[in-house]
Amino acid sequence: MTSIRLASVHKTYPDGTSALRGVDLHVPEGSAFGLIGPSGAGKSTVARLVEGLERPTSGEVRVGDVDLAKLDEASLVAQRRRIGVVFQHFNLLAQRDVARNVALPLELAGVPRADRDARVAELLALVGLDGLAHRFPAQLSGGQKQRVGIARALAAKPSLLVLDEATSALDPTTAANIVELLAELRKKSPITMLVITHQLEVVRALCTHVAVLEHGLVRESGLVSELRAELLPGGGAHGRGRNELLFSEAS
Ligand SMILES: Nc1ncnc2c1ncn2[C@@H]1O[C@H](COP(=O)(O)OP(=O)(O)OP(=O)(O)O)[C@@H](O)[C@H]1O
Q1: How far is the CA of 42 from the centre of ligand 1 (A)?
Q2: Which residues are in the ABC transporter domain (predicted)?
Q3: Is the CB of 72 under 6 A from ligand 1?
Q4: 37 lines ligand 1 (CB under 6 A)
């Protein structure tokens, strides 16, 4: 498990776009932290900073004990391998079968063949893909592809999983099954999850904490249990006015 801390983070892209304008965020160890907000709010930028794919223009990004700004390129590459990432569009390699997709991070880490095979079998059972090891991505449903993506993200036993719109490309039933799988994984082994989503139902079903990002700033954050009840699915979330608070002012 690992915590994440962003302190006064600004990110301006080379073309002058100001994506983050002073973000403070604390993702506690072992939490499932939902990051929500409208398109362009800066959610993916936060993910890329945490993954070490981008550097902040100013401010500090810490993952566990590590201040990412202090790492040279080689250490950053090593750090990236400690983080599992699940993508919206799965990012599977079409020419590799399921087993070899899942094995990829283990190959990159130099894990011997026999250990890799054992770990892949364990992971496929964990995500409910027993028997599909030798299918190719084109022969899988969207939900099965995402199970492969999750197994691959977990292969190197990361203490942090970043899920960037991991259920957004799936139909509602399949998305709910994937959320259920993620919730079960959290119960089985302690892991911190940063869950980027625009789906409030994902936050409700999976997350312990949530922050709302808007125009590059954290507008609100808190425990999911403190989210105002009527904003959760089934409680009239669709009728929410744009400027209404997600959390009750008292909390
Ligand atoms: N590489 C880049 N170069 C320039 N501007 C960028 C780059 N990446 C993102 N942006 C801009 O930064 C802002 C935040 O983008 P970001 O992708 O982080 O938002 P988001 O909340 O993840 O949006 P979405 O929900 O649509 O994915 C947007 O204005 C976007 O156009």
Answers
A1: 6
A2: 4-240
A3: no
A4: yes
Long-range (24+ apart) CB contacts under 8 A made by 240-248 are: 245/220, 246/210, 246/212, 246/220, 247/220, 247/222
| CA pair distance 248, 134, nearest whole angstrom | 50
13 lines ligand 1 (CB under 6 A): yes
Candidates 3.40.50.1370, 3.40.50.300, 3.40.50.2000, 3.40.50.12780; CATH matching 4-87+158-226: 3.40.50.300
Instruction: Tell me the per-residue pLDDT of 116-173, one tens digit each, with 9 for 90 and over.
Output: 999 999 999 999 999 999 999 999 999 999 999 999 999 999 999 999 999 999 999 9
Closest residue to atom 2 of ligand 1, CA basis: 13
pTM: 0.91
Tokens of 5: 């801390």
